Amino acid sequence: MFIQNVSLILTALKQSLYPPACILCGAAGDLGLDLCIPCRSELPLLGTVCSRCSNPLTENTPILCGTCQQDPPLQKSTLCPYRYDQPIDYLIQQLKFHHKLYLAPLFGELMVQFLKTRLNTMPECIIPVPLYPKRLRDRGFNQALEIARPIARAFNIPIDYQSVKRVRDTPPQLGLLQVDRKINLHNAFLVKKNIQVKHVAIVDDVFTTGTTVGELAKVLYQSGVERVEVWVCARTLLK
Ligand SMILES: [Zn+2]
Ligand SMILES: [Zn+2]
């Protein structure tokens, strides 16, 4: 609570000292975000997608994609606003690999505005995908947790970043084949203490093949959670 209050005060202070400016072109930001209206309108929205995995659907298809009809993922739904495409991919890489932590609240706010139009029932808690401890030390922050903070605040849902631990280090996923990802991430997560809630939303920055969130969902179900959904900023498209 204390940290949340401090972060609210800091956000208010920052906004009064530095009015929002677009991180892509420098023009005045809109709706308190560091993004202008024209740049925001050009962000690569996913459009109509599969409710289970957020894979784009062509017109006149049912609500589930072919993959989910044959072999549905563990999560009950995936909510994701953007394709992992320019400039979202660039911004996420800046956040993760170039220490641009200030981009996380922007992604969080964009997620809030997207989720407001999609959510029916609220999960009881948000679990950001944990980083392996060494990776967390190297990066200095967990981008999934930082993106989750504004979402948790907007919907008044607690964040649980202590019950699940990443017990296997895994190299960055981009560039690995799907089969390699599965081997790589097998048993990557461990539930440290019993999770008391039944409905959880996993938050992450990018959804690539879904292996990471699938592994996390697996241990959550094993520990008694009954409904897992996934909220991510961007998704790579299936080839
Ligand atoms: Zn702009
Ligand atoms: Zn699907």
From TrEMBL:
All copies of domain Phosphoribosyltransferase, residue ranges? 144-233
Where does the source fall among the domains of life?
Bacteria
Q: Where is the Double zinc ribbon domain?
A: 15-69
- Pfam families to which the protein is assigned, alphabetical: DZR_2 (PF18912), Pribosyltran (PF00156)
Report the family membership.
Belongs to the ComF/GntX family.
The record's PANTHER family line, in alphabetical order, gives:
DNA UTILIZATION PROTEIN YHGH
Q: What is this protein called?
A: Competence protein F
The species this protein was found in: Candidatus Nitrosacidococcus tergens
Taxonomy, top ranks, is:
Bacteria, Pseudomonadati, Pseudomonadota, Gammaproteobacteria, Chromatiales
